[in-house]
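Could you help me review a protein record that somebody else here produced? This is what I was given.
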Amino acid sequence: MRNELEERILNVLDAHKIGVMASVKNNFPHVRYMTFFHKGLTLYTATLDTLPKIDEIARNPHVCILIGYEGEQVKSAFIEFNGRVVIEENEAIIEEIWEKLDSEWLDKTQAGFKVLKIIPEEILIFDLLAEEPDVLDLI
């Protein structure tokens, strides 16, 4: 069952790169659209160290990400990804994200370019035809 659930989650991650990431700013949720890449169930996204999300995750590294549903098909699945953020230090992974990044918001050569690694703690997959989501608990 777990392998089947992981496969369904990976299918959503393979099909969708844009999602919404929520962190906490002044005790309120703070959301923004982000581009995500994944290695297995671990997500990666790029940012600059001068942007507010760096301070937000330094104070509280737990984030929630919604990815998958785009409103085009009522039957499409999406995931709620709850995890903990760390700054990626592995140069090979940073290079890999640089190569995949195609963004008008970030230039790969900008000073302060950082890759955020989001370590999954719980992933819920919602199928709009099902009453309840399937949950993959990774804690």
Remarks:
- Residues 1-128 form a domain with the Pnp Oxidase; Chain A fold (CATH 2.30.110.10).
